[in-house]
Amino acid sequence: MSCFIQVADEENEEPIEIPVEEDGTLLLSTLAAQFPGACGLKYRSETRSLRGVRLLDGKLRPPENGWGNAVYLCVFPKETPEGEGRSAASRGSENKRKNDDQLEASLAKTKRLELKQKCSDLIVLGLPWKTTEQELREYFESFGEVLMAQVKKDPKSGQSKGFGFIRFGTFESQMRVLSQRHMIDGRWCDVKIPNSRSGEGQQNQVPCKVFVGRCSDDITQEDLRDYFSQFGEVTDVFIPKPFRAFSFVTFLDPDIAQSLCGEDHIIKNTSVHVSNAAPKTDHAARHGFGRGHPRDAGRPGMGGYGPAQHGYGSQGMNGGWGGQHQSGRGTEMPNLAALGTSLGIGGQGGHQHPNSQGPNPAQMGVGPMNLGLNPLAVAAALNQAGWGLLSNLPGQSPDTPMAYSQAGPAPASQAQGPPSMAASGQPGGGPAGGSFLNWMNQGAGDGGGGGGGSAMPQPPGSQPPAGAAAGWPQRSDQKQSAGAGPGYGRNPDYV
DNA sequence: GTTGAGCGTT
C-alpha cells in the first residue's frame, strides 16, 4: 500500500510526497504542514477535469480507486488576503485582480477579515472527567497551535467539571474546530464560543452556508460534497427529507461560500443555483444580509421584508445564531451556528437584485404565513428570482400580502406544504418558532414533534447530519435527553 | 468514590 502521495502547489510544480495515514486518509494537518493554508486537494480525473478530494473531519479521503500515482494539487481558500498564508504571488495568476471593482471588494474583504479573524477562547463541553489539560491540549493540537488549554476543576476536590477552554493561534483552526464535534477520550464533546464571548466578533462573519436550489432528487449528499469540494473544504451538506428540491452546503471558508453565490452549477446534469442561505435569526432581517458579492453586487437587503421584529422578540434570543436550538446535547449540531449562519457585516442592502426578473420578494411580501404553499414552489420561486432563501422571514406580518402565485408555477402535486403560520396565529408563539425558514430548514423534520404541539410537519425518520458519519453520539454514558421534548429529535443541522 | 447540562476563582 502506498504510504505517500504526491502533492504540488500547482500544476507543473514539483510535487512533494506527503504521508498518508494507515487508514488511507490524508490528514489535512499533514497537508497544511507542507502547504500552509491549503484547505483541500484536487486532481485531474480521467476526463482531465479537475476533481476535488473529499474531506471529512479533517481527513482527506482517497478517491474511489485509491490515491494512485496522481499528482494532487493543493486547494487554497480563494483570495487570501495579503499577509496571510501564502502570498498571492506564490499562488500564481489565479487571484490577480484586474479592476477596481475587485480591488474594492478586496479591500472590503480584507477589512472584514481583520474583523473576523480574531480568535476567542472556546469552551469545550462534555469532557470526560478524567481528561487532563494536557490531554485536552494534545487533542486539539492536531487542529493547529493551541495557545491555551484548561480544564475547569472543582477547587477543593480537583475534580474536573467536565468542561474546559481552549484557544487557538489561528482563526482557521478555530473555525475548523467549531465546525465539528470531537471525540475526546471516548466522549463526544462540543466546542462552542462561550457565552461570555458570544457577540464579540462572531456576528461580524459571513455565512459559510449556501443554499443550493433546483436540486434534483438524485443528487445526493455525496454528490454535493464531491462537487463543491473542488472550491474549498465542505464542512457540511444537508438535504432536507423528504425531497424539497434544495439543499445546503457549508464551506469552511465563508468567502468561498460567498464566491459561489449567484452562480449556476451543473451537478448530475442538473443545473442547480447557488445563493445565500438565510441566517436563522431575525438579526438578518433587521440588519440586512451579506455584503454583496463581487459578481452579484447588491443583493437586496431585508428592508423590504416588513416588520421583521414581528413575532420574534418573544422567542428570546439566547445569544448566537440558531440559538434557539443550541441546547440539546446529544443531538446537537456541531457549532455551525458559529460558523455557517452568521451575519454579514452591516449589509448594504436595499438594492434590487440586478438579475431579479421576477417579482422582488421584498415587494411581494414574501410571507411564510402561507396559504398552503408548496415549499418546492416557494423555493423555486425565490430561487428563480435569484434570491434563494434570503430572508429569515420571521413571523411575518399579516399585513403583507401574499403573492406567490405571481412568482412562478407552483407544482401542486407535492402537497406537503409548510405549516400554516397564519393559522398558528403567532407571532412568536408557536412552539416551533413560526418561521417559514425554520420550517424550510428543518429538513428531516421536527422529530421533536413527539413532544407534541408542533405545528411543523413531521416526516418520519430523522437522519444524522452529514459529516457525522462516525456516528452521532449515542454513547451509553451520555444521556440523550430522553423525551426531551420538541426540538431534540429534529435534525441537528440547520435549525 | 457518584454526575453530564452548562459557561471561565485569572
Automatic annotation (TrEMBL):
Residues 82-102, 282-367, 392-495 are annotated as: Disordered. GO terms for cellular component: chromatin; mitochondrion; nucleoplasm. GO terms for molecular function: double-stranded DNA binding; RNA binding. PROSITE patterns: RRM. Its main location: mitochondrion. Residues 405-425, 464-474 have a biased composition (Low complexity). This is TAR DNA-binding protein 43.
